[in-house]
């Protein structure tokens, strides 16, 4: 029985597709990016495996990164206790509902990238947060922040070139925090809620409807080119007038 050339071509194409699919299932195709759940034991001796990887749903407790650049990694729904990062650059990395507790960060740079919540940017229950941690010369440069939290004591944190920041609650909290804000834009948020011997230095920033949550700073320096937009109190007055109409 003869076959129409088009029908034969269709059958061969279908068989090739099935073979490729089966080959992938058996390990011959490209790997599922979620299939390898790296742990700290995998990463510590070979941090290069993080580059362009998607780390999902993994406990990264006791992770140790030192003198390394991590590029295009995604940390999704990860948890960690006791991680240590020294002289680390996170280049265009994504932290989505990543929770680090009791972390130590020394000379760490977040270059670009995003720190956000899972699914909904306003879902603060599933946001990225670093709690009970210590930050020494930790810099976020051009990073997109959506309800991220940095909490600790005796810390130095800088936000630079951060033009896309959303925060339903304070971004930086803790005691003895040295906070630097440079070339950034903050609107309708509480930037920090800090106590103790905390300091604030700001330069080339714009603040609109911004609060500092009753923070106590022993030293505050507003350097050049600070633009103060409407205050939170003006916003409240406008809201009251709108409700009264």
CATH class of the largest domain: Mainly Beta
* Terminal residue distance: 84 Å
Rg (C-alpha, Å): 24 Å
Tally of alpha and pi helices: 3
Query: How is the biggest beta sheet arranged?
Result: 11 strands, parallel
What is the CATH T-level topology of the largest domain?
A: Pectate Lyase C-like
Percent of sequence in beta strands: over 45%
Q: Low-confidence segments, ≥5 residues, pLDDT <50?
A: 17-33
Query: Per CATH, which architecture of the largest domain?
Result: 3 Solenoid
Overall pLDDT: 85
Shape: globular
| Topology order in helix (H) and strand (E) letters | HHEEEEEEEEEEEEEEEEEEEEH
Decide which structural class fits the backbone. Answer: alpha/beta
Helix content, binned percent = 10-25%
The number of domains is: 2
Quantity of strands, as a count: 20
InterPro entries: 5peptide_repeat
Pfam family, one: Pentapeptide
Blueprint (SSEs and pairs):
Blueprint: H1 5-25, H2 40-43, E1 54-56, E2 64-71, E3 74-76, E4 79-81, E5 84-91, E6 94-96, E7 99-101, E8 104-111, E9 114-116, E10 129-141, E11 144-146, E12 149-160, E13 165-166, E14 172-182, E15 185-190, E16 192-195, E17 198-203, E18 206-211, E19 217-222, E20 227-228, H3 232-244
Parallel strand pairs: 1-3, 2-5, 3-6, 4-7, 5-8, 6-9, 7-10, 8-10, 9-11, 10-12, 11-13, 12-14, 14-16, 14-17, 15-18, 17-19, 18-20
């Amino acid at each position: 029985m003869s076959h129409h050339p088009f029908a034969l071509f269709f059958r061969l194409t279908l068989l090739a597709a099935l073979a490729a699919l089966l080959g992938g299932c058996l390990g011959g195709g490209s790997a599922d990016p979620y299939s390898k759940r790296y742990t700290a034991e995998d990463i510590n001796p070979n941090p290069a495996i993080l580059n362009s990887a998607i780390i999902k749903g993994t406990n990264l407790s006791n992770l140790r990164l030192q003198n390394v650049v991590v590029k295009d990694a995604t940390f999704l729904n990860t948890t960690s206790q006791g991680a240590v990062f020294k002289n680390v650059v996170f280049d265009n990395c994504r932290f989505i509902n990543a929770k680090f507790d009791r972390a130590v960060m020394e000379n760490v740079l977040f270059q670009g990238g995003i720190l956000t919540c899972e699914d909904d940017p306003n879902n603060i229950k599933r946001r990225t947060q670093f709690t009970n941690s210590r930050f020494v010369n930790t810099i976020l440069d051009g990073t997109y922040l959506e309800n991220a939290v940095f909490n600790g004591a005796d810390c130095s944190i800088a936000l630079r070139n951060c033009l896309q920041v959303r925060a339903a609650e304070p971004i930086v909290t803790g005691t003895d925090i040295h906070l630097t804000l440079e070339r950034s834009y903050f609107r309708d948020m509480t930037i920090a809620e800090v106590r103790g011997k905390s300091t604030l230095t700001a330069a080339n920033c714009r603040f609109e409807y911004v609060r500092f949550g009753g923070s106590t700073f022993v030293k505050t320096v507003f350097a050049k080119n600070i633009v103060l937009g409407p205050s939170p109190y003006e916003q409240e007055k406008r809201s009251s007038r709108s409700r009264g109409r």
